[in-house]
């Protein structure tokens, strides 16, 4: 990956359309959802169980994070590594993160065998991701700025000049802004405000 793209990543911003893949009368419904934390996974999976109440298995995989990604894969009763990991393999193949991909299976009466299951879950995940709108995003760093009201013009001019996004602002005698910049511009932004006269108090916000 090129140096300037190290703070960018691929994800989806809205759930995919439902896709249907059939194999030997078994039906596989595939879905992709954007997620920002692990707690979002369970309600989404439960909703799929309710939607497909005759489904035998709701298998899934998710990945969160960019610099230190972590993931889980769940076979939901299918043979070990025959469902969750093939789904996760497609997440890796498409190079996406902050995502949950689920494939719901309704058994059609014919056993597929482990090889057939791996292929079917992989295809279901691939079709769900193909049906998703994948976008490129950049990692952001947020800062808290604190300064006296007299410095407002200077601060606003600097923010506008460098096209820095203001997330929230409190303007009284003492002003507090929360701003967001591309992560690779964090050090440069720190320097912009600490070098002002008088310097603006700036600190990273988690």
TrEMBL record:
Residues 24-129 form the Impact N-terminal domain. InterPro entries: Impact, Impact_N, Impact_N_sf, Ribosomal_Su5_D2-typ_SF. Belongs to the IMPACT family. This is YigZ family protein.
């Amino acid at each position: 990956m090129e140096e300037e793209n190290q703070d960018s990543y691929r994800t989806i911003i809205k759930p995919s359309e439902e896709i249907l893949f059939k194999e030997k009368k078994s039906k596989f419904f595939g879905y992709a959802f954007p997620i920002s934390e692990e707690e979002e996974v369970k309600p989404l999976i439960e909703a799929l169980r309710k939607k497909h109440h005759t489904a035998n298995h709701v298998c899934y995989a998710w990945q969160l994070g960019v610099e230190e990604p972590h993931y889980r894969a769940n076979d939901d009763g299918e043979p070990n590594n025959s469902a969750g990991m093939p789904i996760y393999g497609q997440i890796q193949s498409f190079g996406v993160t902050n995502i949950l991909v689920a494939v719901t299976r309704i058994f059609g009466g014919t056993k597929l065998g482990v090889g057939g299951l791996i292929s079917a879950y992989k295809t279901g995940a691939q079709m769900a991701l193909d049906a998703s709108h994948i976008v490129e995003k950049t990692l952001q760093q947020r800062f808290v700025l604190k300064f006296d009201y007299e410095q407002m013009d200077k601060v606003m001019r600097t923010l506008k000049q460098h096209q820095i996004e203001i997330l929230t602002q409190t303007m009284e005698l003492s002003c507090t802004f929360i701003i967001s910049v591309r992560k690779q511009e964090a050090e440069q932004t720190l320097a912009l405000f600490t070098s002002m006269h008088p310097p603006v108090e700036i600190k990273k916000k988690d």
